[in-house]
Amino acid sequence: MMDSIMVAGRRLRPTPVLDTYWRFATERQQVYLARVRRDAAPWTTDPIIASNRFTNCYRAADRVSQYLIGEVIYRGSQDPDELLFRILLFKFFNRISTWELLRSAFGEPTWAGFCLERYDRVLAEAVASGQAIYSAAYIIPPPRLGARRKLTNHLLLVRHMVRDRLVSRLQASASMEQAFRVLRCYPSLGDFLAYQLLIDINYSMIIDFDEMDFVVAGPGARDGLRKCFGAAARGIEADLIRYLTDTQEQHFARLGLRFPGLNGRRLHLIDCQNLCCEVDKYARVAHPMITSYSGRTRLKQRFQPNDHPVTSWFPPKWRLSASQT
Q1: What is the DSSP track for 261-304?
Q2: Closest by alpha carbon to 221, among 270, 165, 172, 185?
Q3: DSSP H helical segments within 2-46, as ranges?
Q4: DSSP SS3 for 5
Q5: Which of 69, 100, 156, 264 is deepest in the core (most CB within 10 A)?
Q6: CB 318 within 8 A of CB 211
Q7: Is 12 helix (H, G, I), strand (E, B) or coil?
């Protein structure tokens, strides 16, 4: 274990969770690659990873992101307004079954053919029949745009953002942080949600910022960083995520780990931010005496294997063609 580090002019003394962070990342990525290869289970001997649900090391490799990239962004018109409309419509519900419901009702959803009343009616009927239309893991608070139903207000926000020339404003942004500020001004998009939505839009050809330009730490990441670095992590979370990203090879080498990466792609800021959330959860079992801000002690989601093949298809502009299937 490391004695101390200097980040943002502050001396921090890492806890044992920092080493766990790198060991977890290595094992979790090995599990992902084994599933991509369609190896037979079990994919790990780590009992915590084997029994509980954790997201992938690379955000873009997760199931919903894979669907967004392959079935929403790069399927259909690449006109910027059409792309933005599809991304917003998908992400405000963030549920694959909701997208497929809309696809079955209207064909491929398009901005040119969008009728708010018709979309609202289809979704309202689904809710009335007992169907879930929102993801339980990623919830955008409903904006107050005058409608009675949450789903209607989200549809109103989609329409407002496209009509508000958001594409042009994002494309005119000189940096990823400036583009983040553009998104942040819309109702219901706080810091973390605006950043996450920006990453999703950046998968498309609308904009092309380097994921190493900017990061925002969410609540789960702040908990993970607190466990890795102690109370001195408060207030410098973005600096610590950059430290983790910049020094990843040194830590893997220090611990004798062979992190397989993603066809040569290093972990980027968004991935290390994501891993902070996951190590917070993992440490609830592995390091129960090391606490976080939230004080959560249990893992809520158990791992449930399914028959869906694990895909590995990423934005073509990343040029990871050898890993795409």
Answers
A1: -BTTBPP-HHHHHHHHHHHHHHHHHH-TTS--SS-------B--
A2: 270
A3: 16-36
A4: strand
A5: 69
A6: no
A7: strand
- Segment 138-160 shows an average pLDDT of 93
Do residues 58 and 275 make contact, with C-beta atoms less than 8 angstroms apart?
no
3-class SS at 11? strand
For helices 219-229 and 237-246, the axis angle rounded to 10 degrees is 70
Contact 50/42 with Cβ under 8 angstroms? yes
53-56-59 Cα angle (round to 5): 130
Distance CA 41, CA 257 (A): 22
CB 314 within 8 A of CB 323: yes
Nearest-10 Cα torsion for 285, 268, 74, 64: 10
The secondary structure element, H or E, covering residue 199 is helix 191-202
Which of 95, 110, 57 minimizes the C-alpha distance to 262? 57
User: Alpha carbon of 116 to those of 59, 80, 121: distances in Å?
Assistant: 31, 20, 9
Report whether 279 contacts 57 (CB < 8 A): no
At 322, is the pLDDT very low, low, confident or very high (cuts 50, 70, 90)? very low
Whether this model's pTM surpasses 0.90: yes
**18: which residues sit within 8 A by CB, 6+ positions away?**
1, 2, 228, 229, 251
Q: What per-residue confidence (pLDDT) applies to 301? A: 67
Question: CA 229 to CA 246: how far, in whole Å?
Answer: 16
For 262, list phi and psi in degrees, rounded to 5. -130, 80
Cβ neighbour number for residue 325 with a 10 Å cutoff: 9
* Amino acid in the structure at residue 123: L
As a whole number of angstroms, the distance between CA 181 and CA 273 comes to: 19
Query: For the chain, what is the mean pLDDT?
Result: 94
Give the span between the Cα atoms of 57 and 284, in whole angstroms: 18
Task: Report helix, strand or coil for 10.
Answer: strand
Q: Which residues contact 142 (CB under 8 A, 6 or more apart)?
A: 150, 153, 154, 188
Tell me if residue 164 falls in helix, strand or coil.
coil
